[in-house]
Structures are given as C-alpha cells and as structure tokens.
Amino acid sequence: MKRFVPALCAMLLSLSLGAQQIKDIDISVVIGKDGSATVTQKWDIEVTRGTEWYLPIGNLGPMTVGGLEVYENGTAFESVGDRWDVDWSRSRKTGKCGIVRKDSGAELCWGLGEYGRHNWTVKYRLTGLVQAYDDADAFNFMFVNPGMEPSPEHVKLTVTPGFECPEWTYDNTRVWGFGFYGDINVKDGAVVAESSESLGYTGKVIALVKFSKGIFEPAVVKGGPVQDLIDRALDGSSYGEDDGFPGWMAFLTLLFFGGFFILLFWMWIASARGFKWKKALFGKKKIEGWYRDIPLEGNLFAAEYLLVKGKRFEVSAPAQNIIGALFLRWIMNGSVRVQPDPTSSKRVNLAFVSENVSADDVEQDLYRFARTASGSNLVLEKNEFETWSKKNYQKMTGWPDRAVARGKTWFHDKRYFERDGVCNLDGQKEACHLIEFKNFLEDFTISDQREAVEVKMWKDYLVYAQLFGIADKVAKQFKKLYPSEYAMVEQSAGLESGTLSRTIWWTNNMSMRSFNTAVAKAGNINGTGGHTSFGGGGGFSGGGFGGGAR
Asked: What is residue 254's predicted lDDT score, i.e. its pLDDT?
C-alpha cells in the first residue's frame, strides 16, 4: 500500500502533463578535502511544456551553491549568473542558464529550447557539503526533490573523493538512503545509490553518509555528536523493519525449498531425539542425566557461552534470557528491590538500591544501563528501559556479545580448552554439568530424590531457570511442591507474598522488549548498505519541493 500511493500520484500527474517524462537522472558528486563538492547531473528527459527547467535548492545553512554550468550536445549554455528572470520568453531563455537567489536558497534555471527529447549535463558547486562533527564528518543532503513535474523514472547517485585519501569502505564510511525504493552501498571506493522504481510525486533522493575522522578537513564545523544527525534521519524510517525477501532470494528459496525442507526435517528428528549439542564443547551430542549443584562455579557468562555456542541447530540462546537472569539475581541478592506498579497488577517496578553490583565490568555495565534508564528516582518503571535501549541501541545490542566473550574467557582461564572453541575432557565434563543441571530443573518434579533444598540454593535455581528460559515453569512447580520454601524465598528477596512469579515474568518480559527494541532500531541502521527507506531522512540539507518544467 505504501508504494501504491506514490505510484498513483505519478500516474495521475503524468496524465495531466501529457507525454512529458524524466527518464533518468545520473548524479555524480565529487567531494574535495575541505568538504566542498562539484555536482554533475545528466538528465534524459522529454519536454512538452514550459519555457525553462528549474531546480530548487534550499535549506543550505552555512552551505553555498553556485557556479552553474549547463551543456547539451557538447555546447555550453550562456551563463547570466544571478540575473536570471523567470518571466523571460522561451526564446530568450534558450541556450542560457542562471540562478535565482531566494531567502530559502536558490533556484538553478536554464532554458528549454525546443520541445522534445533533451540530454542535459548540469554542473554546480556546493561548499560545505561535508561538515565536521565531534566524532565524525558527515552530510545528509537531498539531491532530488519531491514534487517534481514529472517525477523521475530512475535516479542513480555516485559520490567519490576528488583528492588522495584512504579508499572508502565500510570500515570508514557508512551510508543510508531515504525517500526512494532502491539500494545504497559503498563499493569500489564510492558511495552508490540507485532507485529500483519510479520515485513518484512524493519521492525524493536523500543520502546520509558518515565518514571516519581523518579523511576530510571540513571547512564547516557543525560540532556535536554525529549520532544526533543519524537519529533524526532514522526517525520515521523503515530501517530495522522487515522489508521482505528480494526477488532473487525468493527465487533461490523456491529453487532449494525441497532440499531445505529435508534438512529441516532431519534437524527436527535429531533435536527431538536429544542430539542437540556440539561435540566440540560437550564431548557428545546427546546429554542425559541430572546434576543438582550450581554448575560452572555459578558463572552465568560461562553458561551463556555454552548455550549460545554449543547448540547444533539454533543460532543462539535468546539474549533476553541472560539479561533477565541477571535482573533476577540482583533482586535475589537485594541490589534491586521490587515495588508494586500502581498502574498495573501485572507489572512491577524495580528500585536500584546499590550503585555497584559486580567487579565484572560486563555485568556492571548492564546494571548501569538499567540504573541510568530508571531516571532520577532510581526506580525503573514502565517502558523506561525500552526507551533507553532504543536511544542507546548500539550499547544494548552489543552487550550480549560481550557476555558471551566473557564466558569464553572463563573457559580459557580455567584451561578447559584443548584449542580455541574445543573443550578438553575436564572442560567437557563441566560443560555437560550445565545441561545436566537444566535437565534436573526441567524434571525435578518427577524425581524420587526431592529432599529439601536450602533457600539460597533455590534462589540460584530460579536465576539459572531464567537463563534457560524455564523460570515460570520451575517457579510454578516449586510453589506446588515446596510452598513453605517458596514463601521463604519471597521473604528473603524482600518480595510481597505471591509476587515472585509476577517478578519472574516481568523481568523476562522487560528484558525481551528492551533488547528487541534495540535490535529493531539497529536492524541494518548501522549504515552497512543495502535497501533504502522511503520514509525518514529528517534533518537534511539542500533540496526543497518541486522543480522541472515551468
């Protein structure tokens, strides 16, 4: 539906204008070391009306535009500079070009000449395109306006350096495109964006490009963090949403569907029979039996490493499990206190009692994230962690990888690796204890060895159950089989009677929503190329509305 409206507008507009067309705009932008740029546009159009062609360029701020040159068939148009008069006749405008200065910017203008097919080459100069921020250099510029009459059928934009500098790659250059359907990428040392369909009346071409410090020496210093520019542009965009499969991927999916289905069926059979684990870490693929003690010396990051890297068929364990497990551990040890949420009986609020919870910087950072999100009252309330995670998505999405890396370091320090990622016999034994412990928590209700367990042990049990994603099930059975111990755990953790299950559910739900919010914001918004977004692009320079024949 979102593509239908611009297409309908374009169709109606084309009917109203007869056969007038903008078949193609090929834009080349060559940027100098000071951030200035020479823009060259090649227009392939069919003209049936008007006396001149004009391009509004506004919202310039500290930028300037000038030096207009127009060519057709190798012949240069006569430049009248800033003395262009839009009321001149078509014959007087023929073969001439000029600029109309306005408070909002400028209009680049040139005469149409005879109606029919034209191939124009238009050049102009922009100063201050690339501007300096505190941590990067960047531009967010509209190269093709919405509201052009008619709308362009195809646009290609190529941005290259005009001086000796390190080759532009994704290591030093990030890109985003807005206002059109297509792609934008960094390839062969250039930024290349190209539309995949007609822009439509509301379509536009905005390119946001961020460069690492050291490539440019911009004459214009904007200051502040470049992330502010990026966040404003991404607001309202489809980056991070699922845009579906491209056609070629759909074709390959259909082509190999049969083989893929067989593979999935084999994986399902193997998993159903218990062959779930990687032999390199566990020494075997199927792990049976029970282990009652807390495994891996209580190191949750070591456990997370095994759960993420040790599964044969799953990409990883859900990140919210380790986040929720740590939240529950902080509650159990009193660093975080649970308060009722006056607006909902399902939720709880979390009050941060301690400033620090661990000497481990990975755990401490997660605690600091949540504590910061809680605001000045240090009480984490509805949506506060989700809001913080969206704004700080890079920190949030990067944290689970740090947790896994910290767990791997634990195995290295314990000398449990035969070689990187492969456990020796001692390491395999310890690794298997984790899965055996998971088996015990899942099956203890049918055990004939259900002797009493001390309250502290039950606290650890529930934390690990949260890590395994089965805390709600374990808590329910715990309450049913050991009601007095269950009540003691609640009391020991400072919880009101009957709130343990709700606390477990809420910490897991909040962790999931916060992490997923960060992932959704991230998506491919890290600027590593690919599809563009029709929406978004706010905070751009240049551009305007309209343009074309008049």
From this structure: 46
